[in-house]
Amino acid sequence: MNKFLKIQIGSLLAVLMITMANISFGQTKIEGLYYIDKKPVSIEIKDGKIVRVEPLDKLTDESRTFYVAPGLIDNQVNGYGGVSFTFGGAELTVDGVKKATKGLWAKGVTTYFPTLTSNSRETLLKNFIILARSKNDPELLGSIPGFHLEGPYISPVNGFRGAHPLKYVRNPDWEEFMAFYEASGNNILTVTVAPDLKGAIEFIRKCTALGIIVALGHHNASKEIIDQAVLNGARISTHLGNGCANMINRHANPLWPQLANDGLNISIICDGFHLRDEEIKTFYDVKGTSRTIITSDVTSFTGLEPGKYTNEDGDTIELTKEGMLRYPAQGVLYGSASPINSGVSHIMEVTGCSLGQAIRMASTNPATLYGLEDRGAIAPGKRADLILFTIGKRELEIQKTYVDGKLVYQAKH
Q1: Residue-wise over 322-343: b if at least 16 C-beta within 10 A, else e?
Q2: Is pLDDT at 1 greater than 60 in this prediction?
Q3: Is 32 helix (H, G, I), strand (E, B) or coil?
Q4: Which of 45, 43, 39 is nearest to 53 (CA)?
Q5: pLDDT digits (tens, 9 = 90+) for 358-382
Q6: What is the distance between the alpha carbons of residues 405 and 141, in angstroms, rounded to a whole number?
Q7: Separation CA 317–CA 309 (nearest Å)
Q8: Whole-structure pTM over 0.85, yes or no?
């Protein structure tokens, strides 16, 4: 081989090595204050996964100090930014799902369960098909692992029914549910049911056998029925303290048995409207960090301007300037307008829990309950679903959101 050729080959190899170093196989490093101990940390990402987590003496840029935590996981999202997964007066589309997902990314939610509430069989079938088509869209980067069906198998009684339309509420129907399950592509991860309905216990048993996480909600079940539901597989109470009548017996009511049953986790809405501060603290003190999940119950009205809107039945829905979403016709709330990044901040203020404990309730716990083993923590091998944020007065102020290792949101300054 002549000298000139050796030089040419050497030059080509050098260019190739430089190019490969620059490409770095999708490798990225993120720095921040670790959410558990608030100490500087470096997180190395490659091909969408966390490959290394190392402590640092100090951050490279100490002028921009952000906390870093696993992305938030919301198990109950009815819609966002004008997009409803069940209602809304417009057809659900794949583009609508993308719009809602991107809106949630800006709030630090990297994983969520689109939630379908009580409606006609036709509407639920149609929307599950659309959601199934959306689930694996490359643009969503795996943010939707599955779906939540809340209703239509819930109490028909005012108060316990909440804002679910009475005309769509019915007893559990296994044949119908299996049609929903198949339309979803077998992607219904959780279903909320009232255990005091006819056929509910058998329904719970069958769902559990399929690996579906059964939640109890919108019911007035006795202690005996609640305990029986747990024995047959129920794992969690949906937004405990809500979906409940305003006037209940101080002793015989559905709250105490759910709090007392150690087999039940609870999800709670910490938006400052659904539960009083003392309720949040009491529920948290009873169940502890390990059995509490922060949820949002956000609707399509989240992210809209305050004002009066109309639902599909023509009823007035009011979004107040304080962020409360009201259903005046029944004197109840109409879901929430506050994503869980505000719930994380609020539960810290109310209970005195640490940031690490709050993130556990908003990320790690739902990942564990629903078998999402690839997310909910910062550790080698996990998905690089990460948020960088500061703690504001009313919410975690999201600065950057990474999903599957990709920067999907950056705050404007």
Answers
A1: ebbbbbeeeebbbbbbbbbbbb
A2: no
A3: strand
A4: 43
A5: 999 999 999 999 999 999 999 999 9
A6: 9
A7: 5
A8: yes
